[in-house]
Design brief:
The protein is an alpha+beta fold. The protein contains 4 helices and 6 strands, in the order βββαββαβαα.
Length: 218
């Protein structure tokens, strides 16, 4: 079931715009005068246009309104000779209607002979001023964080682990050298002991042989 929308609900602006009156090809309100350049399928409705209108639309040279799903949408365009994006120039109106609007929709084009450059609202200025120092502080903190990558917890742990590994490897090498020396010294001592034992045995054998030796007379 399609939800029924009353005309009063078409106004999405917080503060409704001024009331407009159509006089021939002119759309007039207080201090506002627009020219109705094109009205395809009788799309212009002054009451609904007033409900959808916003003062921000006065900065554009042209105001285009198109209908879709029984609702009016407004879009602003500039003259072709202005230094703006090509998508915002009135020469791209046909592309806008074919790409962003319903096929064969009703639309109208209003010309604004006196566009007004509206100043920024004071709330927006305050927000911008507040946001700038915050962003600067964040950028400074990021640069400081990048410039000072010294001794974090992870790096300290890695250094401690490396130092422990170096100590272990150094100590192991030191002990292995000592063990090699001790083994060589032990081998030499064993060889000397064995040689002493052999000498003692030889001496004993010589003494016994001398004792059993008998001199025969001729």
């Amino acid at each position: 079931m399609k939800k029924e929308i009353s005309p009063d609900m078409y106004n999405y602006n917080k503060y409704p715009g001024p009331s407009f009156a159509r006089v021939g090809d002119k759309v007039v309100s207080e201090n506002i005068e627009l020219d109705l350049l094109e009205n395809h399928k009788d799309a212009f409705d002054q009451t609904i246009f007033g409900q959808r209108f916003s003062q921000l639309m006065l900065k554009f040279d042209y105001i285009v309104g198109d209908w879709g799903n029984e609702q009016l949408r407004l879009k602003g365009f500039y003259r072709d000779d202005k230094d703006v994006k090509s998508e915002l120039k009135i020469g791209r109106l046909d592309d806008y209607l074919t790409e962003y609007c319903n096929f064969g929709c009703a639309y109208f084009v209003l010309g604004n002979a006196n566009p007004i450059e509206l100043p920024a609202e004071p709330e927006d200025r305050l927000r911008r001023k507040r946001s700038r120092p915050r962003n600067r502080n964040r950028s400074q903190q990021r640069t400081e964080h990048v410039q000072k990558p010294k001794e974090t917890k992870g790096l300290r742990k890695d250094k401690v682990k490396r130092s422990n590994k170096q100590d272990e490897t150094g100590s192991a090498r030191h002990f292995t050298v000592k063990n090699d020396k001790q083994s060589t010294v032990g081998k030499q001592n064993k060889q000397e002991r064995h040689q002493k034992r052999e000498r003692k045995q030889k001496n004993r054998e010589m003494n016994e042989a001398k004792r059993g030796f008998v001199i025969r007379q001729k």
